[in-house]
Specification:
single chain, alpha/beta, Nucleotidyltransferase, domain 5, DNA polymerase, domain 1, 3 domains, 17 helices, 48% helix, 11% strand, flat
């Protein structure tokens, strides 16, 4: 099991990979103590069965640069194959400002080919490669050196089996004429916006109960402050203070250190003078935001606006379309999208592109009363009205 520990060794492998049609890739990292993932291992494999066709790269090795790998990622003649690529790409984008292209994500491809929603790698290995994985090394500390033989074997399996999975799914997509469907769903993964966390937008991921614009202004400023501090110190945002503490502060509006000290949910880190003063400044800034500049809560569909009968019929239609098309239901439309369609929304992903062809067109006809569903044994029969 070859472990590359120098830039020269990595460059040699990448030069070889650049002559082939694709390279499979995976990473091992830890993130429990940092804001940004700490890359601990990179696994790479090219077509072939020779011993040197799959390698491990040690990014923790002194003096090793990943620039040869980033050069390969920029080479548009070589397909870069990952499974569930988002976290891997985030690491490479944060470290090297690069997004591998062209990209093939076997998790997305598997859903297009009829596997279950968000199908796991282990499932694909079992069903396509007809082998099983030894997962005992999955949660080991990948930052420790030296790595054990068991760790190396586990890590290499993540890219060697991926070659067989990729070739199988690639051929199936080409034969079914659905290769372009994959391109639509990879746009999010290949957009740099996906991996840029803007502190001013951090408030949007917080589930709030008080949706008044005044309260949201304080939530926004507290979330902005926490995100900026977490990024600058490279610590998890919850290490600064939790979402629950943030919401408590947005509700109680402490104005002094003494008032802040009465918070039930603030941990030691947030009680330090520099952080405490930053919290108080963020609350003050949020309270002083003019009404016109306060954030607005995203509109939520009133439950009474959703025609529950239509929503239920859309779920039955989706199940039928998923079975006949061989595409996972969740990839076609989410539960919230079905409710939105039943409530009258039409600017939705499930009503565009290939999804419109598979499901959206008939979904709209169903809403218009031009389509009927009937049970036919264990199948659902779809009929024009």
């Amino acid at each position: 099991m070859k472990m590359l520990t120098t830039t020269k060794e990595l460059a040699a492998f990448c030069e070889r990979a650049a002559t082939g049609p694709y390279v499979t890739a995976d990473t091992e990292f830890i993130r429990d103590r940092t804001y940004y993932s700490q890359l601990c291992l990179v696994q790479l494999a090219v077509p072939g069965k020779t011993q040197d066709s799959a390698v491990l790269v040690d990014p923790l090795a002194k003096g090793l640069s990943l620039e040869p790998l980033y050069g390969l990622f920029r080479n548009t003649d070589v397909v870069k194959v990952f499974h569930a690529a988002r976290q891997d790409i985030e690491i490479f984008f944060t470290d090297g400002g690069v997004i591998p292209a062209p990209l093939f994500d076997t998790q997305v491809a598997a859903m297009v080919c009829g596997f279950s929603d968000q199908v796991g790698y282990e499932t694909l290995v079992r069903k396509i490669v007809r082998k099983s994985l030894d997962k005992r090394s999955r949660f080991t500390d990948w930052a420790m050196r030296p790595l054990s033989d068991a760790q190396k074997k586990y890590a290499l399996a993540d890219v060697t089996h991926l070659r067989v999975i990729y070739e199988h799914l690639r051929d199936e997509l080409e034969q079914s004429g659905r290769a372009h469907w994959l391109d639509e769903d990879l746009r999010v993964l290949t957009s740099s916006e996906t991996y840029v966390v803007k502190p001013e937008e951090a408030w949007r991921r917080i589930k709030v109960r008080d949706r008044s614009d005044r309260s949201l202004a304080v939530v926004r400023e507290l979330a902005r402050y926490r995100e900026s501090l977490a990024q600058s110190r490279n610590v998890p945002r919850n290490r600064i203070f939790s979402d629950a503490a943030l919401l408590e502060l947005a509700s109680s509006h402490p104005r002094t250190v003494n008032e802040l000290s009465k918070s039930r949910l603030l941990l030691r880190e947030a009680r330090k003078p520099d952080v405490a003063n930053g919290i108080l400044a963020a609350i003050k800034q949020g309270l002083e935001v003019p009404p016109a500049d306060r954030p607005k809560a995203e509109s939520r569909k009133d439950a009474q606006q959703v025609n529950s009968a239509v929503a239920d019929l859309l779920r039955v239609l989706l199940k039928a379309k998923s079975e006949t098309s061989g595409v996972a239901q969740k990839l076609i439309a989410t539960a919230s999208e079905l409710d939105a369609i039943a409530a009258g929304e039409r600017d939705l992903p499930s009503l565009k592109g290939w999804r419109r062809e598979v499901f959206g067109f008939d979904a709209l006809k169903l809403c218009e009363g031009k389509l009927a569903l009937a049970a036919h044994g264990r199948k659902i029969k779809i009929m024009e009205v």
